[in-house]
Amino acid sequence: MATVQSSRKMSLASPLPVEQENDLDLVAFTMAALRFVNPWSVDTSNKWSQRIEPGTPEAKDRVITLSEVSLHDTPKDCWVVIYDRVYDITDFLYEHPGGDEIMLEYAGRDASTAFRSSGHSSIATKALDRFLVGELPLHERMYRRPGGIRLSDIPE
Ligand code: HEM
């Protein structure tokens, strides 16, 4: 009776031929190395280790996504979005005439409607500039984009 002979060596521990298992090891090793050198795989919580000084010209040109804003949602690191611009209000929390708690409700989130419906004066709107750290990318904006929501009190 004819028997089929395999020339491939089999390992007792694995159902795969030894050569194929070595190939898999090589693939896993290459993937791990790529993850190590790939900048996109770096933890996003480290992304803002470079501190942005609020209100500087550099801050004006910085594009910050909503998902990045959401990382700054604590009393020690508090960002909000108002009319598509991103503000670091950490140092203002305890100076705010309306109190810190109300602002912390919007930490890491969009506060445009809350800001507007609290009837802030034009002075308050102007004061926003001091805290500016960046602006949302065009595709995430609701106001400052072609065809966006038009309101009389959106600052320049
Ligand atoms: C960076 C953002 C903010 C700035 C610069 C700011 C600034 C101010 C200023 C200067 C006032 C005094 C009244 C005025 O001039 O309008 C005020 C009052 C007030 N703010 Fe804000 N504010 C900010 C965010 C918010 C947010 C997100 C809320 C959320 C609802 C809020 C709620 C209030 C309320 C309720 C008052 C009235 C306090 C009172 O009259 O007793 N503010 N804010």
Short structural description:
GO terms for molecular function: heme binding; metal ion binding. Belongs to the cytochrome b5 family. The chain has helices at residues 18-37, 57-60, 66-69, 100-104, 112-117, 122-127, and strands at 73-74, 77-82, 85-88, 109-110, 132-135.
Reconstruct the topology from this structure.
Blueprint: H1 18-37, H2 57-60, H3 66-69, E1 73-74, E2 77-82, E3 85-88, H4 100-104, E4 109-110, H5 112-117, H6 122-127, E5 132-135
Parallel strand pairs: 2-4
Antiparallel strand pairs: 1-2, 2-3, 3-5
Overview of this protein structure:
It contains 6 helices and 5 strands. The protein is α+β, with helices and mostly antiparallel strands. The chain has a domain at 44-140: Cytochrome b5-like heme/steroid binding domain (Flavocytochrome B2, Chain A, domain 1, Roll), CATH 3.10.120.10. The longest helix has 20 residues, at 18-37.
Tell the overall outline.
elongated
H/E element order: HHHEEEHEHHE
The description of the largest β-sheet is: 5 strands, mixed
CATH superfamily of the domain at 44-140: Cytochrome b5-like heme/steroid binding domain
The low-pLDDT segments are 41-46
Could you give the distance between the termini?
A: 90 Å
CATH topology of the domain at 44-140: Flavocytochrome B2, Chain A, domain 1
Content-based structural category: alpha+beta
Annotation field: number of helices: 6
- The share of residues in helices is 25-40%
Q: What is the CATH architecture descriptor of the domain at 44-140? A: Roll
Strand content: 5-15%
Average pLDDT over all residues: 82
- Rg result: 26 Å
| Oligomer state of the chains in this structure | single chain
Protein name: Cytochrome b5 heme-binding domain-containing protein
Keywords: Heme, Iron, Membrane, Metal-binding, Transmembrane
Main location: membrane
Domain Cytochrome b5 heme-binding: 61-137
